[in-house]
Amino acid sequence: xxxxxxxxxxxxxxxxxxxxxxxxxxxxxxxxxxxxxxxxxxxxxxxxxxxxxxxxxxxxxxxxxxxxxxxxxxxxxxxxxxxxxxxxxxxxxxxxxxxxxxxxxxxxxxxxxxxxxxxxxxxxxxxxxxxxxxxxxxxxxxxxxxxxxxxxxxxxxxxxxxxxxxxxxxxxxxxxxxxxxxxxxxxxxxxxxxxxxxxxxxxxxxxxxxxxxxxxxxxxxxxxxxxxxxxxxxxxxxxxxxxxxxxxxxxxxxxxxxxx
Length: 260
Hints:
By secondary structure, this protein is an alpha/beta fold. The chain contains six helices and 14 strands. 17% of the residues lie in helices and 31% in strands.
């Protein structure tokens, strides 16, 4: 049996507005606890020698400059919303020597070509990001030596992707996950899932809904991400969760070991 360690570093754990939210004067947005400061949701997964970025939002430059390692080999995109793709232009340093692979659903890649036309021009301007857009469907695919399995979920009426990588399942912006997909994830060692706030929302799970999904999947450990100020102060809110469930925070690094 071989012990293989997967590491995930949370670059950002906030919702589309981030925390503090502009114009808000609540106690969370005024907090001086760094755990209450949340950039837009993104993470780096390090596994089998690969450094895989999940989503690349408008805070990416700030996030990667403070990360424990700036090495990146590929990007997985969950969906096309601005808070998950707006930082892609800042990937240009990773494409100086070769194209940088971006894996996403076909409709997402099609929209990226519209959003970033200068990257895909016949004669691109020198210095623009050189991106290799790779269309994925529902089947597993390889990123180097790492198998990645898409997890289709619903973000209100939009079908988006979560991803399973080794012992990790990463799901964000989900409002509904089917019983079929939950069954595939049962017993996962490590689950990351969105939990926006306590008040209901039409396109995101509440904390209570996320807790119910965690109960059904029964992972060894679970971490909530894509949170707004509505969860309350991190220090207080964390005491209300079961011991194996946690609110993630920016710069948190979690290691999961599995046997194969």
